[in-house]
Amino acid sequence: MYEYRKHLRGSFLNYCVAIVVLLSLALLIGLGAVFSVGSKLKGTDFLLIGAITVGMFIFIFIEFTLIYFLFLKRFKYINVKLDEEAIIYNNKKKKIVIPYDDIISMRYPSIRYTGGWMEIKYNGGKIRLTVVLENIGDFMYNLKEILDKRGRSAVYNEKKSFNFFKTATFSDESWERIYKIYKYLLSIEYLSVFIAIFLSRFGVIQNNFTSIIVFFLAPTIGYLISEIIIGTRVSKRVVHDEFRVIPRDLSKETKFARILIAVSTLICIFIMVLI
């Protein structure tokens, strides 16, 4: 059975915790700007800053609450299974059984190595499965095998399917890396902001608010660079003309991402101190 990834199946409490973590980081950046030496925000009314902060928290909380209950909560109940005779698609409202012989076509609206979904059209309707479906690459491979054995290869385009398979594979692997390093990334971001506040407090760096933002973004830039580099290797691991990919070493990829995050942060500190 294939389900959507755990961050989409999370409870409302999980989302509340995520909001608090992100807002606390934003608040730290704001306070750092206010208390930094030479900051133009020093004369700002602190009560106004507090009111804006509380108002922003309430607004974002309400917004995320609506997003969760209107769009995200449904992912907890969605799953799909490849049975012997049909695709079984379940959501909160109903169960959809799609016999393989009823499949009319499969489309893949997507941006390579970025995101998208596969659309399965059948007699009576269609379903969409996004790249955030856990192990969607494996799902595609198994579905293709079933259709080929039944002589139903005409319902999909080989080249487009293969291209989407590479995107789906990269998405699967990317999310697994995120789950491994997100705590590390957040920790480095917090640490970077604290370092920026400390350095600006003692006048080591100039243009303080901008510096704090740069310090905050530095770890994320390192992470994005690691994803780009790792992403270029995915196509080399995919076996051409087959829906198969050579296994990767997740621990090595995670270590590589951690190193680039740390290096990016250190380079940022070095450059900002010299400026």
Describe the protein's topology:
Blueprint (H helix, E strand, L loop, with lengths): L1 E2 L8 H24 L10 H27 L6 E4 L3 E5 L4 E5 L3 E5 L2 E2 L3 E8 L2 E6 L5 H14 L8 H44 L6 H30 E2 L4 E2 L4 H25 L1
Antiparallel strand pairs: 1-2, 2-3, 3-4, 5-7, 6-7, 7-8, 9-10
Helix pairs in contact: 1-2, 1-4, 1-5, 3-4, 4-5, 4-6, 5-6
Summarize the structure.
The chain is built from six helices and ten strands, in the order E-H-H-E-E-E-E-E-E-E-H-H-H-E-E-H. The protein is α+β, with helices and mostly antiparallel strands. The mean pLDDT is 86.
CATH class wording of one domain: Mainly Beta
Number of DSSP-assigned strands? 10
Strand content: 5-15%
Q: Which topology of one domain does CATH recognise?
A: PH-domain like
Mean pLDDT: 86
User: Which stretches are low in confidence, meaning pLDDT under 50 for 5 or more residues running?
Assistant: none
Q: Number of helix segments?
A: 6
Task: Report the C-alpha radius of gyration, rounded.
Answer: 23 Å
CATH architectural arrangement of one domain:
Roll
Helix content: 55-70%
CATH superfamily of one domain: Pleckstrin-homology domain (PH domain)/Phosphotyrosine-binding domain (PTB)
Could you give the order of strands across the largest sheet?
1-2-3-4
Cα separation of the termini: 55 Å
Would you tell me the structural class of the helices and strands?
alpha+beta
Please state the overall shape, judged from the principal axes of the Cα atoms: flat
Largest sheet: 4 strands, antiparallel
> Helices and strands, in N-to-C order?
EHHEEEEEEEHHHEEH
Keywords: Membrane, Transmembrane, Transmembrane helix
